[in-house]
Amino acid sequence: MSDAAMLRTPLYDAHLKLNARMVPFAGYDMPVQYASIIAESKAVREGAGMFDVSHMARVSFCGEGVEAFLEQITTNDVSKLGDGQGQYSMMPNLEGGIVDDIIVYRITADHFEVVFNASNHQKDVEWSKKFMPSTVTMNDTTADTVMVAVQGPTARQIVAQLSDNPTAVQAAALFEVVKCKVAGVDTFAACSGYTGEDGFELIYGKDEAETVWNALLAAGVTACGLGSRDTLRVEAGLPLYGHELTDELSPIAAGLGWVISKTKTFNGSDVINKAREEGTSTKLQGIKLDTKRLIAPGMKVYLGEEEIGEVSSGVVSPLLDTGIAFALLRADVKQGTAVTIEVRGKREPGTVANKRFFKRA
């Protein structure tokens, strides 16, 4: 996609005012960093940081039979949601791979909001249409709204202070939705995020894009880019579509059996259930390096001289002060195993680890 065709979020000008370094991402011109990836990562771990995630797709599904439709196209149990509750889930294909990982929010019995990954926006819309009954309507609100993720130990307190319903914000459970005003702007505040920290993803009208953003800045929230977002999500053990999740990879191999219903039938459920019962040949694991080397996707992992898998994501962790990675490894390789990763002709030593390198107490 040429620069001329690159999409911009409603916060594009706000990023330029903060001297953000902009890069192409999922068809958008997005901020990769403002100050430094290390500083922004630490801001989220120690206080509060915010990310413009308006590139992610936001779609409403409404009408008679909408719950049954969503049950068919997603892996998690939609029927367990009450009004104002959400869940992490996946849209599987018929072969047991993953079309996308998503979040589903129930507003009422006949109204659900769904967040797709930016890179899969049109793919997900077309996939949903294949199974959508005539009684259900789809409304894509991505272009009309802004989405800002506020994350960190003090994120909840700051959002509460800026809202007209601080009690509800303070009390919100994970994936619960609070409809409130933030900085005077009508906001869909979902208690969710992609960093392993507490916080909210705020969705509101594009005409007020900088109103809420600037209020958060003034309250002491640090603007953060895609660089720190990637570092934080790897530290927290969170997958990225196209790296840890693909159309070909079973969610069982990716360690996501916990978001797959054991009681309902859905697209590809027979294949996924078989993988759960019989196991998979590969398994997603973490690797902690002995050095601060940046490990890239596709690099090969070795046990002695035997190749046992390859890296799907890698970062240098400011929290752990070393290189960390996700890798799809042979399923019999256990945590604690000493391995090496080939980095430009040199073998770097590391240890297979739980892929949740960080977990907030």
Topology at a glance:
Elements lengths: L11 H6 L3 E5 L2 E6 L3 H10 L2 E4 L4 E7 L2 H8 L11 E8 L5 E11 L2 E6 L4 H11 L4 E5 L4 E7 L3 H8 L3 H6 L5 E6 L2 E6 L8 E7 L3 H10 L3 E2 L2 H10 L33 H10 L3 E8 L10 E4 L2 E12 L4 E9 L7 E6 L2 E8 L8
Parallel strand pairs: 3-13
Antiparallel strand pairs: 1-2, 3-9, 4-7, 4-8, 5-6, 6-7, 9-12, 10-11, 11-12, 14-17, 14-19, 15-16, 15-18, 16-17, 18-19
Helix pairs in contact: 2-8
Note down, in words, how this protein is organized.
This protein is an alpha+beta fold and 361 residues long. The chain folds into two domains: 1-280, Probable tRNA modification gtpase trme, domain 1 (Gyrase A, domain 2); 282-353, Beta Barrel (Elongation Factor Tu (Ef-tu), domain 3), CATH 2.40.30. It is 22% helix and 35% strand. It contains nine helices and 19 strands. Strands 10-11-12-9-3-13 form a six-stranded mixed β-sheet. Strands 14-17-16-15-18-19 form a six-stranded antiparallel β-barrel. Helix 2 crosses helix 8 (226-235).
Q: Which terms would index this structure?
A:
alpha+beta, Gyrase A, domain 2, Elongation Factor Tu (Ef-tu), domain 3, six-stranded antiparallel barrel, globular
* Strand-residue proportion: 35-45%
Strand arrangement within the widest β-sheet reads 10-11-12-9-3-13
- Find the structural class using helix and strand composition: alpha+beta
Q: Write out the CATH superfamily name of the largest domain.
A: Probable tRNA modification gtpase trme, domain 1
The main β sheet shows up as: 6 strands, mixed
Number of strands: 19
Number of domains: 2
CATH class of the largest domain: Alpha Beta
The low-confidence parts are: none
- Quick check: average pLDDT? 97
Q: Return the string of H and E elements.
A: HEEHEEHEEEHEEHHEEEHEHHEEEEEE
Rg measurement, Å: 20 Å
CATH topology title of the largest domain: Gyrase A, domain 2
Helix content: 10-25%
